[in-house]
Design brief:
Rossmann fold; alpha/beta; binds guanosine-5'-triphosphate; 7 strands; about 240 residues; binds magnesium ion; about 35% helix
Length: about 240
């Protein structure tokens, strides 16, 4: 008798898990990937300063202060890998982090920060949009929305840009700990409808809290699908 083939997690992520066992496989793949060491390896302030494309990349985008850097820290289990601040506009460049030589995580500057000077905004936003539109190794964008606020026109504009560039994005609600369950369910439904209205929008929206850890295991599971296999580790390390 032949042994049964080892179960493989579903390729479409949690949205396509049919059984608890499939879901558990995805969660475990995410746990394993994010248990690997994470380290900063590059900062880019201009399109010319981007690192040569190497590992598959997942970028964290969203309005200023939405919680991009905090989410990255929660995912990697590190308190201060990415710099967090109560002052909007803290992240001013594209910061690249290597995760176990298998995936690059990219912390982006926020958009929609009214107080930034015009020229600074043009610099950050030009770099950000160039990167989002043209990066060959960009596997997915996590587009963050504050769970306590309705999406803004600028969020929709970024979704439009990603849709036009055919870059797959997943909406992630942040700061879920600040919202009561009823209101959170309504925001989730609203975000799901919004995601489905874009071809490039992933149908599964996750509610997360970097403070409480809500949704972090699920987001790790979603992102594990893009990581290079562990055995390619040696040749995939960034130069
Ligand atoms: N309650 C709560 N606060 C959060 C959470 N995530 C982030 N924050 C707070 O929100 C503020 C902004 O967090 P950051 O992670 O710096 O946000 P960012 O999107 O990286 O901001 P910029 O880089 O300036 O665009 C900080 O005061 C965080 O402590 C969360 O899950 N729950
Ligand atoms: Mg930040």
């Amino acid at each position: 008798m032949t042994a049964p083939a080892p179960a493989a997690p579903p390729r479409g992520g949690l949205a396509e898990a049919r059984t608890e066992a499939e879901r558990a496989l995805l969660i475990e793949a995410g746990r394993l990937l994010f248990a690997a060491p994470a380290q900063f390896f590059h900062a880019a302030q201009s399109t010319a300063g981007l690192p040569a494309p190497g590992l598959p990349e997942v970028a964290f985008a969203g309005r200023s202060n939405v919680g991009k850097s905090s989410l990255l820290n929660a995912l990697t289990g590190r308190k201060a890998l990415a710099r967090v601040s109560a002052t909007p506009g803290r992240t001013r460049q594209l910061n690249f982090f290597d995760l176990g030589g298998r995936l690059a995580l990219v912390d982006m500057p926020g958009y929609g920060y009214a107080q930034a000077s015009k020229s600074l905004k043009a610099d950050w936003q030009g770099l950000m949009f160039d990167y989002l539109r043209r990066r060959p190794t960009l596997a997915r964008v996590c587009l963050l929305l504050d769970a306590s606020l309705p999406p803004k026109p600028v969020d929709r504009a970024v979704m439009d840009l990603l849709d036009t560039a055919a870059v797959s994005f997943q909406l992630v609600l942040t700061k879920a700990d600040r919202v009561r369950p009823g209101a959170l369910a309504a925001r989730l439904a609203e975000a799901q409808a919004l995601a489905r209205s874009f071809t490039a929008g992933h149908p599964l929206v996750l509610a997360t809290s970097a403070e409480k850890g809500t949704g972090i295991a699920e987001l790790r599971a979603e992102l594990a699908a893009f990581a290079a296999p562990p055995d390619r580790q040696a040749d995939a390390l960034p130069a």
